[in-house]
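Researcher: Go.
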Amino acid sequence: MKLRLFLTSLLIAFVASPFVHAAEGKDSPLEKEMGALNKAFRQLKKQAADSTLGEASLPLVAQMEKSATASIALIPEKAADLPEKNQAEFIAEYKEKMQAMVATLSKLEAALKAGNTADAAKLVGELGAEQRAGHKEFRKPKD
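Model: Structure:
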């Protein structure tokens, strides 16, 4: 009898588990924008590694600029965890860093249009460093 109860409970837990995780995993608008930005950036990094950066990379840069610009107006979830007196400074710093990223993306776009792949590859590296630093500073740690 105990074994049957245990197995039934285990079966219910396995069946219900995806629904519980799906409800927890709803992405915020900022996470959606950052996800789109990251997807384009991963493709751009592959092109930089393969030395295939060029005019064909411009749509990826445009997608990244669009997502980064949209992200400026959004507030990271980590801000809610800070004391109220520090939130305004945190948000202002986040917006400043995102604007700096948009500026770097504009430089990358200009380098690609000019056919300067060496500068473009360097700028892709800078974007990677900005991303790592920004995630460390502004992203809420995963539980």
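Model: The helical segments are 2-24, 29-49, 58-72, 84-114, 117-138.
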